[in-house]
Amino acid sequence: MINITKDEFNSAVTKSGYPKPSEDQYNSFAAELRGNWKLHSKDLLAMFFANVLHESRGLQSKREENPPHDYNTVQAWFQQVDKELQKQYPQNKYFGRGYLQLSWIGNYREASEAIFPNDKLKLVKDPDLIARDESVAWKTAFWFWMKNVNRHVCCFPSSIKRINPTEETKSQIDSRISIYKKVVDAFDVDAIMKKDGCNCLKELKDNAKS
Biological process GO terms, please (predicted)? Predict the structure, then answer.
């Protein structure tokens, strides 16, 4: 089992240019790391944490600012269950929340099913719980990473592609990379920017928004 000390955690945040995090933020992070997520590589944890810091402005924001989408409009690609739920809870807004900015009702439903097996619609009914509850903010971040990112990455740029494949500008990509280099220094691991045969960074920047 990997471990990140409080000093490593705080150093990663402050070296990235953000204020020192709270005791509760570290304790909630550490509790999830010791939990059932099976994230056993410190290299991958550094990638996870760098993306968390970028998405949350250094753990300062758990609600998406100025959402670019109308997350409450039923989309053609929604699963049928999510189309019905969107109609059932029209007052709820499923914009980005938590430390990896969980978005869209389908992700809220799937995260809720995984995290709250005894109340499988908990986050659909109360989406803002992710922003209000420190533990839930970390749970949803780890859930999203393990479901959608962890097993698919070969380098740090590939993690960005899994999280935001088409929504990033070049400056946002550079910001994530800059933070990542600070995190690997704090965690005392090597930066993994490219693997043999990997063109992830070039593909990211070629497809970046202007």
Answer: cell wall macromolecule catabolic process; chitin catabolic process; defense response
